[in-house]
Write a structure and sequence with these properties.
The chain is α/β, with parallel strands linked by helices. It has a domain at about 10-190: TIM Barrel. About 40% of the residues lie in helices and about 10% in strands. It has helices at about 40-55, 70-85, 100-115, 125-130, 135-145, 160, 170-180, 185-190, 200-205, 210-220, 225, 265-285, 300-310, 325-330; strands at about 10-15, 60-65, 85-95, 120, 150-155, 235, 240, 250. It has an eight-stranded mixed sheet with strand order 5-4-3-2-1-6-7-8, covered by helices on one side. Helix 1 (about 40-55) runs parallel beside helix 2 (about 70-85) and helix 3 (about 100-115) packs across helix 5 (about 135-145). The longest helix has 22 residues, at about 265-285. The radius of gyration is 20 Å and the shape is globular. The structure holds iron/sulfur cluster (2 copies). One iron/sulfur cluster binds near residues 22, 23, 65 and 94.
Length: about 325
């Protein structure tokens, strides 16, 4: 039987904050303006980065929420990474902070002095529901003029966004009206979207086809492969390690590298060995849980509903269903 232990970290990032000016409809972490306005402390950043390095990973990206909402703290994180010997591949931004070219250049120059080399700039119809494209264009230009690299994520949408008024925001409905009724479903082929967090609600009307029983029948194995995958890991401002891409699940940083005890992580242990069938059974036996919906997209959709139900019933190990705001801000 596979051992539940995060032995080595391959590639991942640091989540500095979950609060954001936007509530994008694909956001895996359910970020929004409604989260507590908490940013990673210098101490947590250093402890996270030292752990990452100790487990074999020497570079990270920095993401959120929107990391550039607290510039001083972000500068501290960049300097700490340098001190610890972990390279920062890029910092993600949604460009919401852009006001004018001069202030953007001053801000980026300051961050560059502290170690910023590349910005991943979000460009998508989801982001455009909240942030005008003109701000993104402003950030790209300011980065170019200050010698900061740009990682456009993704440039394929520039053509679509350029057809709409760049000074305003546009709903997904507007995109559908302009580009066709199947525009939103086609986004699944054009953009990397992990079916978790808010993407579940957004795509459920298009994709949910299976009952909870069918989902359980089709997924008889455990989720070891997903939970042990460290190719896109994250450690957050609370010292939580998020296993795989399973947002809302957490492992305490201090437990990385060790075999995870079932008493401390009952839900994670069940998911690891028995998968969705295991926690479905657990929810039925503990609380007479019955599925709230007629149909689900996949096992992760049902898993998210069951975990939300556990949080509402104050069930599970205190280390494993975090941050709790994830379950309240969907
Ligand atoms: S996807 Fe990015 S910009 Fe959108 S809500 Fe999530 S963190 Fe904020
Ligand atoms: S069912 Fe749950 S634990 Fe398994 S991969 Fe999906 S979200 Fe992760």
């Amino acid at each position: 039987m596979a051992e539940f232990r995060i032995k080595r970290l391959v590639s991942g990032g640091l989540i500095t904050n979950y609060f954001c000016v936007s509530s994008c409809r694909h956001c895996l972490y359910n970020c929004s303006p409604y989260w507590e306005k908490k940013y990673i402390s210098s101490q947590t950043a250093e402890e996270n980065l030292r752990t990452i390095r100790k487990l074999g990973c020497s570079s990270v990206h920095i993401g959120g929420g929107e990391p550039l909402l607290r510039l001083e703290e972000l500068g501290d994180v960049l300097q700490i990474a340098m001190k610890v010997g972990v390279a920062v591949e890029y910092v993600e931004t949604n460009s919401s902070w852009f006001k004018d070219p001069d202030s953007a250049m001053a801000l980026l120059l300051n961050l560059r002095k502290q170690g910023l080399q590349t910005l991943l700039v979000s460009i998508s119809p989801f982001h455009n529901e909240y942030i005008p494209f003109s701000r993104i264009q402003g950030v790209i230009e300011a980065a170019r003029r200050t010698g900061i690299g740009i990682f456009p994520w993704i440039s394929d949408f520039i053509a679509d966004l350029s057809e709409l008024d760049a000074a305003g925001t546009h709903s997904l409905k507007e995109f559908e009206e302009r580009f066709g009724q199947d525009y939103v479903t086609h986004l699944l082929q054009r953009y990397w979207i992990h079916m978790g967090g808010r993407a579940l609600e957004t795509f459920r009307p298009y994709l949910a086809e299976k009952s909870a029983q069918e989902i359980c029948d089709e997924n008889s194995g455990g989720c070891a492969a997903e939970l042990l995958n460290t190719r896109h890991f994250h450690l957050d401002l609370f010292g939580n390690y998020i296993p795989g891409l399973c947002s809302g699940l957490s492992i305490k940083r201090e437990d990385l590298g060790k075999a995870l005890p079932a008493e401390k992580y009952p839900i994670l242990t069940t998911l690891f060995h028995e998968g969705i069938r295991g926690i479905f059974k657990m929810a039925q036996e503990e609380f007479d849980y019955t599925p709230a919906k007629d149909s689900y997209i996949n096992k992760c959709d049902l898993c998210t509903e069951i975990r939300t139900f556990f949080v509402q019933n104050d069930f599970g190990g205190s280390a494993e269903l975090n941050p709790k705001e994830f379950y309240k801000n969907s």
